Amino acid sequence: MIELLVVLVIIGLVAGIVSLSIGGDERRATEREAKRLAGALEHAAATAQWRAQTLGVSADGGGYRFWRRDANDRWSVLADDDVLAARTLPAGITATAVAYAGAPVAPDAILPFRASGRNEPYTLEVASSAWSLQVDADPLNRVHLAAPADSR
Description:
Low-confidence stretches: none
Strand content: 25-35%
Shape: elongated
Distance between the termini: 42 Å
Radius of gyration: 20 Å
Order of helices and strands: HEEEEEEEEEE
CATH superfamily: minor pseudopilin epsh domain
CATH class: Alpha Beta
Largest sheet: 10 strands, antiparallel
Mean pLDDT: 90
Structural class: alpha+beta
Number of helices: 1
CATH topology: minor pseudopilin epsh fold
């Protein structure tokens, strides 16, 4: 009887450790994707200034992509920069645009990065079922991560 009790305790401990590590992996994956997006956003703002072009970013839930505005004021997908290549997020992680210049944005909005470097503040959210992070940028193109007030 004691052997059975010891086996049950060991199984319980292993199950607890596995459940904690799974939740931690999802949280780490969300944070990793948010950091990757933050780096790409800083690169996009710098590239817009360097190339003297208006670039933009959109997030559609399952991923995000970067855009270039042409002389006719039309957006086209940016394909000549590996850092700014379209990114499909891992299953269970989403990215959405939340705000631009202090106002909510439509789900299909493209947030612009001006060639002048003077951009409006914006917020994107990277989320999973276990965790969410806001990717915030200020007018000086400094990007930082923050847990929203209603974090999951």
